[in-house]
Amino acid sequence: MSETHTVALARPWFGEEEAAAVRRVLASGWVVQGPQVAAFEQAVGALHQMPHAVAVSSATAGLHLVYLALGIGPGDVVLVPSFAWPSAANMAARVGAVPFFVDVDPRTYNLTSAALQHSLRLVRERGLGRPRAVVAVHEFGLPAPMDGILETANEAGLMVIEDAACALGASHQGKFLGHFGRAAVFSFHPRKSVSTGEGGVVVTREPGLAEAIRTLRNHGQEMHNGRREFTTTGFNYRLTEIQAAIGIEQLKRFPYILEAKRRLAAQYFNELDGIGGLALPAQSPEQTWQTFMITLESEALRSRVHEACRASGIETGPGAVAGHAGALWGGQFLQPQDLCPVSTRLATCGLALPLHAQLTPDDLRHVSSTIHKSMQK
Ligand SMILES: Cc1ncc(COP(=O)(O)O)c(C=O)c1O
Question: Which one of 34, 217, 300, 319 counts the least CB within 10 Å of its CB?
Answer without folding.
Answer: 300
